[in-house]
């Protein structure tokens, strides 16, 4: 398949190389007019500029061409200007590791993007525009959790002097046990010299209390937020 690859410095995927390895003819695209002979066009650009690239490409798109963008924040709806030319459009974006997310506007687009993902050996999940912000928020929570685990590992290492034991507890390999009572949490909080770490401690205590129904801990955390 003749593939046009439109990308900028924000592209950190290996789609270009993967498509070439599969035997496709992949050519870099720098101007929208260069897509005329392409069967598939990959749009791997900064998501902030994706709408303007789509508008420019729509001026040269033709019926039957396939357009796929790689921006995680958008589903396939952003490609509407291309779809109205008769092109087939879809979204294929990396999420984490081998996990990617896909979207399409119709059954043909869904079939094509699923076949392309299978050819590339990707593990994919359909996520439409209506669920994209929730997806991104979940990804941010995962990053927050990673930061919290790093803090936990650092403090445990300082106390235990054993990196493996500290990491095993922080990563959940070994259970950290039940949440302590308010008095113990308050004492732990008071011992923290780092204001950022102390603030994170309170926020996480409150959220954990909300999830587990620990009303006394939730009230304590609210009091800390209010400066009491």
| Overall structural domain count | 2
Hey, roughly how much beta strand do the residues contain? 15-25%
CATH class of the largest domain equals Alpha Beta
The strand order across the widest sheet is 2-1-3-4-5-6-7
Main sheet record: 7 strands, mixed
Gyration radius over CA: 24 Å
Short précis:
With 228 residues, this protein is α/β, with parallel strands linked by helices.
Describe the 3D structure:
- This protein is α/β, with parallel strands linked by helices.
- It folds into 2 domains: 2-127, NAD(P)-binding Rossmann-like Domain (Rossmann fold), CATH 3.40.50; 136-225, N-(1-d-carboxylethyl)-l-norvaline Dehydrogenase, domain 2 (Orthogonal Bundle).
- It is 48% helix and 17% strand.
- It contains 9 helices and 7 strands.
- It has helices spanning 15-21, 50-58, 80-83, 107-120, 132-160, 163-170, 182-190, 195-212, 215-225, and strands spanning 2-7, 25-28, 40-44, 66-69, 88-96, 99-104, 123-126.
- It has a 7-stranded mixed β-sheet with strand order 2-1-3-4-5-6-7.
- Helix 2 (50-58) links the parallel strand 3 (40-44) and strand 4.
- The radius of gyration is 24 Å and the shape is elongated.
- The termini are far apart.
- 25% of the residues are buried.
């Amino acid at each position: 398949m003749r593939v046009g690859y439109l990308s900028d410095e924000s592209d950190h995927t290996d789609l270009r190389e993967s498509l070439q390895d599969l035997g496709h003819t992949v050519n870099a695209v720098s101007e929208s007019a260069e897509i005329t002979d392409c069967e598939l066009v990959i749009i791997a650009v900064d998501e902030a500029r994706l709408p303007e690239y789509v508008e420019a490409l729509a001026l040269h798109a033709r019926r039957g061409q396939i357009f796929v963008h790689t921006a995680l924040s958008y589903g396939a709806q952003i490609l509407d200007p291309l779809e109205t030319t008769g092109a087939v459009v879809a979204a294929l974006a990396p999420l984490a590791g081998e996990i990617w997310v896909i979207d399409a506007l119709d059954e043909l687009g869904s079939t094509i993007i699923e076949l392309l993902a299978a050819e590339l050996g990707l593990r994919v999940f359909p996520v439409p525009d209506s669920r994209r912000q929730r997806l991104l928020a979940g990804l941010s929570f995962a990053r927050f959790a990673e930061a919290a685990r790093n803090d936990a590992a650092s403090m445990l290492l300082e106390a235990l002097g054993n990196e493996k034991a500290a990491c095993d507890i922080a990563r959940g390999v070994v259970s950290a046990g039940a949440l302590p009572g308010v008095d113990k949490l308050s004492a732990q909080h008071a011992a923290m010299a780092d204001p950022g770490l102390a603030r994170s401690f309170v926020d996480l205590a409150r959220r954990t209390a909300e999830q587990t129904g620990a009303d006394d801990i939730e009230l304590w955390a609210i009091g800390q937020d209010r400066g009491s």
